[in-house]
Amino acid sequence: MTIFNLGSINVDHVYQVPRIPALGETLASTDYAQGLGGKGANLSVAAAKAGGRVVHVGAVGEGAERVLAELEGYGVGLEHVARREGPTGHAVITVDAGGENAIVLLPGANMTIAGEEVAAALGAAQAGDIFVTQNETNGQEDAAARASAAGLRVCYCAAPFEAGAVSAMLPHADLLILNAVEAAQLQEATGRAPDALGVADVIVTRGAEGVTWYGPEGAAEFSAPKVTARDTTGAGDTFAGYLLAGLDEGQGMEAAIGLALRAAALKVTRPGAAAGIPLRGEVEASPSENK
């Protein structure tokens, strides 16, 4: 089967700092790296490293050759990534000594994806394939509706969070992934708890505390492996990519969540976004936690 990902492709500029700068403060960076990023690209890389067949649907502008080569090197299909004039999406990321980050994002070409380009990509899909999207591109609702009508399982990662965008996607989603802060924001905006959203499966990620899965039999808690975080950038994308790869290969939700938690825990011990996402063999060799 195939995972079709309508998602962002960014050039990340990552600065190591002693702490996240305060308003008006200037800090000297202790290190700098540039590489592939974007929630969409990170998810595609994670799913591919987990062993999934991934087709990325998106757009890039100028200066994208290096990140496209990196994506392709990880095994992500790029036949439906459009080329545009103007800037490729990029992010400026500061990472503090404890591994926490602050990010400034320029969407760039990520917001120029045409509906007919998405339709062309989904024309190759089969019933039972997975479609996933996030909030760093345009056209999510239309694409999700197309995917659902074609019999794909629709997954929506509700980040960066915007209540209106999430509410519009709920009727099309079979699986919703959001973090604890986003879940609280959505409940405040809609008056509905995660188990009352009308989505078959809702997963709320809670960082080092693990995740809660709201499924057909109610809520189930899963703990995360205990690690010392070095860089949390891309941890949520790693979780989502591994989860979908597990589901796509036929794992049940519990097994796929366990695999994804181990992958995300291993990711935060490594610097960088896509480059820090572990391979499937590394994840399977890592410690696990029981539900």
TrEMBL record:
Keywords, comma-separated and alphabetical: ATP-binding, Carbohydrate metabolism, Cytoplasm, Kinase, Magnesium, Metal-binding, Nucleotide-binding, Potassium, Transferase
Pfam family, one: PfkB
Residues forming coiled coils: none
Activity regulation note: Activated by a monovalent cation that binds near, but not in, the active site. The most likely occupant of the site in vivo is potassium. Ion binding induces a conformational change that may alter substrate affinity.
Subcellular location: Cytoplasm
GO molecular function: ATP binding; metal ion binding; ribokinase activity
Co-factor binding details: Requires a divalent cation, most likely magnesium in vivo, as an electrophilic catalyst to aid phosphoryl group transfer. It is the chelate of the metal and the nucleotide that is the actual substrate.
Class in the EC hierarchy, top level: transferase
Residue numbers annotated as active site: D237 (proton acceptor)
GO terms, biological process: D-ribose catabolic process
Amino-acid positions noted as binding substrate in the UniProt annotation, renumbered to this chain: N10, V11, D12, G38, K39, G40, A41, N42, E136, D237
EC number: 2.7.1.15
Pathway annotation from the record: Carbohydrate metabolism; D-ribose degradation; D-ribose 5-phosphate from beta-D-ribopyranose: step 2/2
UniProt catalytic activity: D-ribose + ATP = D-ribose 5-phosphate + ADP + H(+)
Keyword Cytoplasm: yes
Residue numbers binding K(+): D231, T233, K267, R270, G272
Chief localisation class: cytoplasm
Residue ranges occupied by any Carbohydrate kinase PfkB domain in the UniProt entry: 6-278
Cited InterPro entries: PfkB_dom, Ribo/fructo_kinase, Ribokinase, Ribokinase-like
GO CC annotation: cytoplasm
Its biological purpose: Catalyzes the phosphorylation of ribose at O-5 in a reaction requiring ATP and magnesium. The resulting D-ribose-5-phosphate can then be used either for sythesis of nucleotides, histidine, and tryptophan, or as a component of the pentose phosphate pathway.
Assembly mode: Homodimer.
HAMAP family tied to this protein: Ribokinase
Family affiliation: Belongs to the carbohydrate kinase PfkB family. Ribokinase subfamily.
The protein's name: Ribokinase
Species name: Pseudoroseicyclus tamaricis
Gene field: rbsK
